[in-house]
Amino acid sequence: xxxxxxxALAVASVSCSSVKEQNEDCIEAMPVEVxxxxxxxxxxxKRNGKRINLKxxxxxxxxxxxxxxxxxxxxxxxxxxHLIKIDTSGRRWKVAGKALMYHELGHALLxxxxxxxKESIMYYxxxxxxxxxxxxxxxR
Length: 140
Ligand SMILES: [Zn+2]
What we know:
Blueprint: H1 2-16, H2 19-28, H3 32-47, E1 58-62, E2 71-74, E3 83-87, H4 91-108, H5 132-138
Bound molecules: zinc ion.
């Protein structure tokens, strides 16, 4: 009985906390290397009038992903897991970590597919540079 009450309280407290608080908790649970990028993404989303809920997002760092790419938003389209894997051994992560994170967050949170536009953050290989223009386009 005591356990049921505790579970009920936990559920109630989660549903009472705001999206902002939930997002802060989610960011705290992420690897420290990506936290600032995710915070910046939320800031840019808000600036463009998009509300983002990070509730289901998970970010894992790994080395040498066995996928065509250097980051991967696994399951973003097929499940509700929203798992992003980032290959931290790659050059792309080292020179353009924020752009890579924005690309994967575009898949996982905004449900975006790849773009043919070489200036787009959603171009296949992801761009090296984030500009105000390509960041804003991500949220349109
Ligand atoms: Zn991609």
